[in-house]
Amino acid sequence: MSHVLHRSVNGAYSVAVGGKGVMLYDAQGKSYIDASGGAAVSCLGHGHPDIVAAMHAQIDKLAYAHTSFFTSEPAEELAEHLIARAPKGLSNVFICSSGSEAIEACLKLARHYFIETGESRRTNFISRRQSYHGITVGALSVGGRMKDRAPFKEMLLTGHHIAPCYLYRDRRTDETPEQYGLRVADELEAKILELGPDTVAAFVAETVVGATLGAATPAPGYFKRIREICDRHGVLLILDEVMCGMGRTGTLHACEQEGIAPDLMAIAKGLGAGYAPIGAMLASGRIVDAIRQGSGAFPHSQTYNGHPLACATALAVQKVIERDDLLANVRLQGDHLERRLKERFGNHHHVGDVRGRGHFWGIELVADRASKTPFEANLKLNARIKQAAMARGLMVYPMGGTADGTAGDHVLLAPPFIADAAVMDMIVERLGEAVDAAIADAL
Ligand code: PMP
């Protein structure tokens, strides 16, 4: 019996022993196409020689130096690299080890900013239902997946939720996508007014929703309206690009495609491509300047902040992405993947929606296409698809719907940026077989 405490405590897990390119191998010698990059992490695939070499070089020099004594060359270079390519106004990088920590840092820095600027009444955070922002208590407080929150309800910080931007299910038939986007964005303004504008610190949202809604893209104009509302009421905009950022949607940051910049942004996953645990918060110059001119302190640090080996790894990952023009491949092969998915699932009886951007795609499964009725949760279709896909040598990221039927089961795809058309074809072929087998098994 395993002594590792797994997410599924009684679960039986294969033992991963190796990886090369888009493939992962287990101890039984079975190979899997990593079509989800784990959880949208392994954007360069596995065993990339340039990343391995950069890691060796750094570990030979310096693995660790505590940030209360030193900064390090890789941390400085990574921050410089990120800021040179960051959305407008972002000037500083806080480097941590995960997405949850990056979100925690955003919440804390937002709070510090308002203390420094004499607006300490701003303690409320607004986010969206059916969202995931991480597992630590602060991140869970803004998360909007009610079943994750339920056991900790009494322990969470004040969090307020508005509707997600979920075109497939929530747009009325008499609305254009644009009208729908503005209607749900305006829920933010209503919530700010209800709470009192001078009590609201920030609004938190994923630019493209990953785990909870399966690559749900925002309606056109939605984020522009959100940005206007935040500015009108002095509320900070925190974008969670932990999953959808760092090239996943075909531009380095997903918000570039929305034509807006946040005040704070969380990134992780693709930043280090899984070669090292790393996340980061990017902060606007306005916020950092307020602290610089005030107390001068952001008292929020952890032992592994700015870890030199993690930073050198992430820098190497980002340089390879640029050197090999991999975002052009994400756009090109993303279009190919979209075509293939729509051919295979566009008329499928049990697929209601195919959505996404770049190398970030989701299919939503339904018991009935016309009424969009989700499958019964107790069928555990998501678990069946995962099993059927693994049996066919394919890793995808299926997720269950909500118990109240406001979202259906979906499957998330996040193939590595190096994937070519032949890999995409194989992914869609195996996924099609796995979905059909899982549904046949469930019904
Ligand atoms: N935000 C989003 C959007 C995520 O998808 C995740 C991870 N799935 C997190 C935050 C938390 O990241 P981590 O698991 O690295 O703590």
Q: What does this entry look like structurally?
A:
The structure is a single chain. With 443 residues, the protein is an alpha/beta fold. It contains 14 helices and 15 strands. The chain has helices at residues 37-40, 49-61, 73-84, 99-116, 137-142, 146-149, 167-170, 177-195, 222-232, 285-293, 308-323, 326-345, 381-391, 421-442; strands at 16-20, 23-26, 31-34, 90-96, 124-128, 159-162, 200-206, 236-240, 264-267, 279-284, 351-357, 360-365, 394-395, 397-399, 410-413. A hairpin with a 2-residue loop joins strand 1 (16-20) and strand 2 (23-26). Helix 2 (49-61) packs antiparallel against helix 11 (308-323), helix 4 packs across helix 10 and helix 12 (326-345) runs parallel beside helix 14. It starts with 15 loop residues before the first strand and ends with a helix. The site of 4'-deoxy-4'-aminopyridoxal-5'-phosphate has 16 residues, from helix 4.
